[in-house]
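User: Can you fold this complex?
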Amino acid sequence: MPAPLLVTFVASGAGDRRIDRIEAVRGTGLEHAACLAVVEGTRGDGPAGVRWNLRGVTSSLGYTTETERRILVARQPELGRPQATKAALIPIRKREEWWALAQDKRRAILELRSQHISTGVKNLPAVARRLIHCRDLGEPFDFLTWFEYAPEDADAFEELVGRLRETEEWSYVEREVDVRVMRGTSTSSPSRA
Amino acid sequence: MPAPLLVTFVASGAGDRRIDRIEAVRGTGLEHAACLAVVEGTRGDGPAGVRWNLRGVTSSLGYTTETERRILVARQPELGRPQATKAALIPIRKREEWWALAQDKRRAILELRSQHISTGVKNLPAVARRLIHCRDLGEPFDFLTWFEYAPEDADAFEELVGRLRETEEWSYVEREVDVRVMRGTSTSSPSRA
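Assistant: Here's the predicted assembly.
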């Protein structure tokens, strides 16, 4: 795993992904915009007319065991597959009660009782995923979760998201927004600045 | 535990703690300065003539179990005790190999094989501690560790630091600097901006 990579999601009038919808799942939503751009490596303030931007870093694995890591590495696809024209940006913030728990208590809720990791594995290799950490950066969310999938895998992805939202872990989520985007004719992977 | 608190250590010609020595334990050291100030809550760029500053955030517990957390909460003293006139700032960066390990592997090295948490517990309540995370912030170190102790506990503290440096965990440390400071006549706790 490389050193933390800064990733910024920029919502504005321009960008290579069109925003289909923005849904406030829990708490305050995000302002609507026409397009979303994914910028790696710089602050990525983007073009003029930015409605919002969210940034964070790829980081080390907070809960995943070595056994789970091996399964993920073997089965999860790379970002930027040409056929994965659909994507979801789901920013999440958890309550202070969650962060006050010791590490083993959080792991027990996340995997033993909520099957977060094993549920995600069931959707591999259809859904490519990236977890971006932003709690330590003073951002409005704790995580920015990003998923890329092909139109024919959309139903399976909806089922995955629905199952996770019913878990004990999700009772700790106090803010969640669901941003769905569709790539245009371009099949390029996220730009690296 | 409150939301992440930004903490900045500012080395310059002014500040309520006098720097006794700065030792490069592993890798590149830090420039010498006369004084160190601890600033909470803002970027804390400090007075003119800043030699260096290091910032990070208090964060959730990365490895501590609930059992260990209860012991720590029961035994660890608050920061800012009047008698704890000595302090150490020990910034640490670990190799990429460490961060590439799954969470259970890092926990096994840190506690099962290196007794990091239990070694620290042995020095309670003599040494007050604060762990500041900065890897996700793009800072030159991964952690800023901060310890406050009374002069009569200095030998016990040196023994603690020496034991940790001999552990398997420490073989993953690629940069470490040891900054020792002494408080002046003031007995105030760190300033909150």
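Chain A touches chain B at residues 1-4, 6, 56-57, 59-66, 68-69, 96, 99-107, 133, 135-138 (CB under 8 Å). The longest strand of chain A covers residues 173-183.
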